[in-house]
Amino acid sequence: MKAQYLDDLKRALPRLAIRENVSYRDITSLGVGSALPVLAEPQDPEELAGLLRFTSGHAIPVFVIGGGTNLVGMDAPCPMLGIRLHRNGFSEFSSENGIIRAGAHLRLPDLTSRTVELGLGGLARLAGIPGTLGGALRMNAGANGVSIGDFIVKVSGFDFRGNPWSAGHDEIEWRYRGSSIPDDVVITGAELKLPAADRETEIAALRSEVEARRKREPAGRSAGCTFRNVSEFEPAGRLIDQCRLKNYRIGGVAVSAEHANFIVNLDSGRESDYVELVRHLRCAVAEKHGFYLRPEVKFLNPDALPKVMAAVEAPKINLLLGGASNEREISLKSGSAVAQALRNGGFDVTVTDVTECRLLPEMREADVVYPVLHGGFGEDGRIQKVMEEAGLRFVGSGSAASLLTMDKIATKRLLDRLGIPTAKWSVVTRDRRELPQNLKLPLILKVPMEGSTFGIVKVERAEEWDAALEKEFAMAGELLVEEYIDGIEITVPIVNGEVLPAIEIKSPHGFYDYDAKYVYKDGHTEYFCPARSLSAEQVADASRQAVKFYLGAGCRDILRVDFIVGKDGVPYMLEGNSIPGCTATSLVPKAAKVSGISFEKMTATLVYAAMRRHEPRPEPENAAAPASPAPARLANKPNPLLVKLCHLLFRLALVLCAVPLIVSGIQAMRAGYTGWPLLVSGLFVLCAEFLFKWFDRLEKMK
Ligand SMILES: NC(=O)C1=CN([C@@H]2O[C@H](COP(=O)(O)OP(=O)(O)OC[C@H]3O[C@@H](n4cnc5c(N)ncnc54)[C@H](OP(=O)(O)O)[C@@H]3O)[C@@H](O)[C@H]2O)C=CC1
Ligand SMILES: C=C(O[C@H]1[C@H](O)[C@@H](CO)O[C@H](OP(=O)(O)OP(=O)(O)OC[C@H]2O[C@@H](n3ccc(=O)[nH]c3=O)[C@H](O)[C@@H]2O)[C@@H]1NC(C)=O)C(=O)O
């Protein structure tokens, strides 16, 4: 059917090259679909501007087509007018003062070989990309770790109303396979700055890239990679391949036998076949790997992408970050990194910066809540309690285990109970502040409820004790004191009950404080994974103790357990972290990577662990969410004198009850009555305490 506006367009722009019913086989590399009703090919910027003024003035929808190497045509007639820049007016190539000016119609292989001829480097690794510069810029085309955006000085074009548009490198956000160049812009050219390079070397690099690509990728008709990679460690091609779907065919299209992320048109493919196959691959990968692949190709049909995405729905995750503790900044970084990893895996992620401990609507709406909060209410069990009470599924330990691992004094008590070696320790308060006599200097003073090494002070000499206490009492009224253990610091991550390789930490400060952990990044603190200075037995020993603590404390999903391996070779446990950091310098992702688990896989696995749990006691819909009370410190030890006094009084009360019973029993028996029940009851009451103690002992015997 002829487009109604066509005659008016021809009258308005008589020189404009217009083609009707152009087969998608002629204008796209994949070649599925029927034919594009109208294709306009402006020959210079002025004609392009005129065309855009006409289409916007007549409300005619348009789309831009470059080399067509990433496009999927449609079976039904396309309601949009296609605009393709004509070779004549948009293939400029010039070089002046180190700046290359190139037209948007130039194909990347052409652009690359011309720059290499001029002795310029940088682009050789992009030499095999078949699209035009325009398409490459819009999608920030890349290969082998290099993207076109890296070399751009300025991009120029026209917006869809026909007005000139341009933007400098820094005004554009260059993403993996995407840029912030507005959708309603036709790119006409760009300026690039390339480094000088040896011509012969670059020519050789270019040839080897083209050759490698020829071997790796299918020769038939395709639109390049179908899906974006989840990450460089989770390439879509491998994920599909592992589903054994090479050669899988629907109608006239099939998964390439050479590279599973390519779908090839076997000559008679329809758009509907292609969409069905993309849906099938997406479902298969979701089922086997738990990732929700996102298409890289562009569908002309506006209904196609929603249909593909509807094939399998990704879980909704509400990621909590920020918090109100000292560690807020770290949580913002960790949380953003986790959110990005989950998005790379195709999850539907909403991010909430929480500053108060309460239930929020987005938490209820999510399938899983993923708290990445360090310290404060995020890690001491309060937010977990709120979620448990609302029956929400969330990643990480529950409220009781969170509180236990956050509370350094409670942790010490548990370590003693479980027989896990730990530094000798004591507790000081404002009332009992003297240097514990049973501990040897140097000592470490710790604020019990702080994380990330906040509030840790080392006391080398007795004279430093009072000053150190003053500093620490500003943060808490009760402090943990422990003997300093000279040795090698290691940390053992546990993810879903699986122990990951231990990491050895070498801090420039002697001990791993906040600065060493976050401020100096990789440059100053050194990490070795696997640990380089310990024997396999020592690492195995630490791993066993870490698991003992993980189970003993009732933790789940994720835990990082810190140790110092002393000069005696014993791993002394310091503490557990139930929400360990996930920044660039964080340790759990490092260890996961060493054991072949990508960050994306690790975060996805944690989401699934939470999804499998059933949290009981759901609250009624829209119930008001009470602010959570501050947590009671775990096992706060009562005054021992008071306990002793109560015990004595209890014993006295027992004797006072027992004596009248025994006396009455004897008297009754003497008088010829059945007094023995009274006598036996009295004796029981008298012996009750000893009986309880005896039963307790029997129960504890293994
Ligand atoms: N790495 C590889 O091996 C491969 C990479 N590719 C990449 O795919 C992309 C395809 O390039 P190409 O074939 O030229 O593009 P296509 O013709 O396939 O068009 C793809 C999209 O690019 C946009 N586009 C194309 N030209 C322009 C322009 N002049 N101005 C504004 N937007 C434009 C359009 O986006 P919109 O619809 O949003 O306007 C269009 O939908 C490139 O990035 C290419 O490098 C392709 C195959 C293999
Ligand atoms: C093809 C495109 O870009 C390509 C680009 O050409 C190449 C070269 O740098 O790197 C990316 O492919 P890719 O990640 O699949 O790279 P490859 O080197 O082919 O494969 C990655 C890994 O997956 C494995 N792999 C790949 C395909 C397969 O069927 N089976 C398999 O196991 C490979 O063995 C390799 O270990 C880009 N794809 C994406 C989605 O980022 C495109 O954008 O259309």
TrEMBL record:
<protein>
    <recommendedName>
        <fullName>Multifunctional fusion protein</fullName>
        <ecNumber>6.3.2.4</ecNumber>
        <ecNumber>1.3.1.98</ecNumber>
    </recommendedName>
</protein>
<comment type="pathway">
    <text>Cell wall biogenesis; peptidoglycan biosynthesis.</text>
</comment>
<dbReference type="Pfam" id="PF07478">
    <property type="entry name" value="Dala_Dala_lig_C"/>
</dbReference>
<keyword id="KW-0067">ATP-binding</keyword>
<feature type="transmembrane region" description="Helical">
    <location>
        <begin position="648"/>
        <end position="669"/>
    </location>
</feature>
<keyword id="KW-0132">Cell division</keyword>
<keyword id="KW-0963">Cytoplasm</keyword>
<dbReference type="InterPro" id="IPR016166">
    <property type="entry name" value="FAD-bd_PCMH"/>
</dbReference>
<comment type="similarity">
    <text>Belongs to the MurB family.</text>
</comment>
<dbReference type="InterPro" id="IPR005905">
    <property type="entry name" value="D_ala_D_ala"/>
</dbReference>
<keyword id="KW-0285">Flavoprotein</keyword>
<keyword id="KW-0472">Membrane</keyword>
<feature type="active site">
    <location>
        <position position="296"/>
    </location>
</feature>
<dbReference type="GO" id="GO:0046872">
    <property type="term" value="F:metal ion binding"/>
</dbReference>
<dbReference type="InterPro" id="IPR013815">
    <property type="entry name" value="ATP_grasp_subdomain_1"/>
</dbReference>
<dbReference type="Pfam" id="PF02873">
    <property type="entry name" value="MurB_C"/>
</dbReference>
<keyword id="KW-0521">NADP</keyword>
<keyword id="KW-0961">Cell wall biogenesis/degradation</keyword>
<dbReference type="Pfam" id="PF01565">
    <property type="entry name" value="FAD_binding_4"/>
</dbReference>
<keyword id="KW-0274">FAD</keyword>
<keyword id="KW-0573">Peptidoglycan synthesis</keyword>
<dbReference type="GO" id="GO:0005829">
    <property type="term" value="C:cytosol"/>
</dbReference>
<feature type="active site" description="Proton donor">
    <location>
        <position position="225"/>
    </location>
</feature>
<keyword id="KW-0133">Cell shape</keyword>
<keyword id="KW-1133">Transmembrane helix</keyword>
<dbReference type="InterPro" id="IPR036318">
    <property type="entry name" value="FAD-bd_PCMH-like_sf"/>
</dbReference>
<comment type="similarity">
    <text>Belongs to the D-alanine--D-alanine ligase family.</text>
</comment>
<dbReference type="GO" id="GO:0008762">
    <property type="term" value="F:UDP-N-acetylmuramate dehydrogenase activity"/>
</dbReference>
<dbReference type="GO" id="GO:0051301">
    <property type="term" value="P:cell division"/>
</dbReference>
<dbReference type="GO" id="GO:0005524">
    <property type="term" value="F:ATP binding"/>
</dbReference>
<dbReference type="Pfam" id="PF01820">
    <property type="entry name" value="Dala_Dala_lig_N"/>
</dbReference>
<dbReference type="GO" id="GO:0071949">
    <property type="term" value="F:FAD binding"/>
</dbReference>
<keyword id="KW-0436">Ligase</keyword>
<keyword id="KW-0560">Oxidoreductase</keyword>
<feature type="transmembrane region" description="Helical">
    <location>
        <begin position="675"/>
        <end position="695"/>
    </location>
</feature>
<keyword id="KW-0131">Cell cycle</keyword>
<dbReference type="GO" id="GO:0009252">
    <property type="term" value="P:peptidoglycan biosynthetic process"/>
</dbReference>
<dbReference type="GO" id="GO:0008360">
    <property type="term" value="P:regulation of cell shape"/>
</dbReference>
<dbReference type="InterPro" id="IPR036635">
    <property type="entry name" value="MurB_C_sf"/>
</dbReference>
<comment type="function">
    <text>Cell wall formation.</text>
</comment>
<keyword id="KW-0547">Nucleotide-binding</keyword>
<dbReference type="GO" id="GO:0008716">
    <property type="term" value="F:D-alanine-D-alanine ligase activity"/>
</dbReference>
